[in-house]
Amino acid sequence: MTDYKRARENMVESQIRPNGVRDPGLLRALYRVPREVFVPASLRPLAYAEEHLAIKKLNGGARHARYMMAPLMLTRLIDLLRPQPSDVALDVGCGTGYSTALLAALTESVVALESDPELAEAAAENLTSLGIDNAAVVQGPLAEGYPSEAPFDVILVNGSVDEVPQRLLDQLGEGGRLAAFVREPTAAIEDTFGYAYSYEKSEGWVSGQLEFSGGAPLLPGFERQQGFSF
């Protein structure tokens, strides 16, 4: 039988700390939030492995599955956001709710946006089961964000994108931060390699910065629009 508490401790001490994550609040959240709750039963022994875990098959089979981001990749993205206790967060593509649970431990409140009805229902159930009451799961297209609750202090894009839509950046408040993995322009749909970027709004302008290489599976709705050339 898997000792998930031990696995959680090992994840933090052998995967997260050695890769530069030092924020004490984030480390506490990683110790406390049971990642295995958010993973399909058949994959729970892999809950703390450094790999992206499929949580939902979409039309087209495995290559279009939705994934839970690998722990280190997710943690480093959250670390870029510098979450504060007074922040209002938007979790874009919350999946089954693990990332939302981490953000809820670090911020005042979280809007967890999910486009898939089954995943949204699972996320709501998982968060409720853990007594997390400062997060609300909402449904809608991921690339649209959730403008009715904007502006946000932090926006986590929970996967890779071909480009960050301006409409998401527009939902940042003054001083707000967004983090996402952005893929190479020539990447095939199944490619996960890319670069983590952080964005920050200051005096009404949003600037972006490349932070580190890494990646995650592509989120639906963030594919690069194909055009015609003559």
TrEMBL record:
Pfam families per record: PCMT
UniProt superkingdom: Bacteria
Coiled coil ranges: none
Assigned keywords, A-Z: Methyltransferase, Transferase
Alphabetical list of InterPro entries matching this protein: PCMT (IPR000682), SAM-dependent_MTases_sf (IPR029063)
GO CC, alphabetical: cytoplasm
A GO BP entry: methylation
Protein name: Protein-L-isoaspartate O-methyltransferase
An MF annotation (GO) of this entry: protein-L-isoaspartate (D-aspartate) O-methyltransferase activity
Similarity annotation: Belongs to the methyltransferase superfamily. L-isoaspartyl/D-aspartyl protein methyltransferase family.
